[in-house]
Amino acid sequence: MRIILLGPPGAGKGTHASRIEKDFGVVQVSTGDMIRSAIKNKTDMGKKANEYVQAGKLVPDDIVIGIVKERLLQDDVKDSFMLDGFPRTLEQAKALENILEEWGMHLDAVLYFDVNSDEVVRRLSSRRVCENCQATYNLISMPPRQEGVCDHCGGKLIQRTDDRPEVIKQRLETYEEQTRPLVEFYESKGLLHRVVSMGSIEDVAERVKEFLAGLNA
Ligand SMILES: [Zn+2]
User: Taking CA 199 as the corner, what is the angle to CA 198 and CA 201, rounded to the nearest 5 degrees?
Assistant: First the structure.
C-alpha cells in the first residue's frame, strides 16, 4: 500500500498516521524525519540540505525530492509507505509521480483529512502547554488533573500564540491555499479520498480502516 496523507493542522492526521502504521504495518515517512536523518547520515542530499538548514533557510524542492528518493529506495518502504508532509507543492507531487513511474510503481490513494474550520479552532484553541517541561494538554480531550497546572512538574500551563483562534484561522487559510493545487491534482487522477475528520477519534479511525482495508482487498 502506497499512500499519502494530507490535512490541515488540527485535522488529526498525526494520530491517524500512528494508527494506520500499527493496523496495516505501513511505515510512516515524514518529511521532517527524512531530512533530519539524511543530514545525520550524511547522504549526498543530506549534505546539501544541511547547508540550507545551517543557514536557517528552507530546503529547496529539488533537494527535498532527492531526499525522498533516497529514502524510498530503502528496504523497509519497498512495498509500502505512507508519506506525511510530502508532497507539499504541485511540483513535488509531479516529481513523485515521475519517480514512482520510473520504478514501475504507483500510488494507491491520497487521504485528505477534512475538517471544518470551527472544529479545528475548537480543538487547537483548547491546547495548553507546560511552560516548564513542554508537556501538552487539551482542555477537552486531555485536561490536566488540576486546572492550569502541569501534572508532571507543577509548571504553569499556557496557550501558545499559534493556538489562538485568530492565528489558527490564518494557518488554516494558508494551508488550504497551498494545498488546493495538490488536492485538485490528485482528484483529477482519481486518487483523492476525503476522510471526514469529525466526531470521535474512534469514528474517524473506523472510516480510515474501512477505506484502507478496501484498498488492500
Ligand atoms: Zn510540566
Answer: 95
Q: What is the pLDDT at residue 215?
A: 85
In the sheet that 157-158 helps form, which strands lie side by side, from edge to edge?
136-138, 127-130, 157-158
Higher pLDDT, 9 or 160: 160
Q: How many angstroms does the Cα of residue 36 sit away from the middle of ligand 1?
A: 27
Find the catalytic residue in 122, 171, 194, 209: 171
Which of the four pLDDT bands, split at 50, 70 and 90, describes residue 9? confident
pTM metric for this prediction: 0.82
Q: Locate the domains of the chain by residue range.
A: 2-27+80-117+169-216
Fold of the domain built from segment(s) 2-27+80-117+169-216: Rossmann fold (3.40.50)
Q: Tell me if residue 13 is catalytic.
A: yes
User: Does the active-site annotation cover 94?
Assistant: no
- Report the half-sphere exposure of 208 (CA within 13 A, side-chain side): 29
Which amino acid, residue 21? E
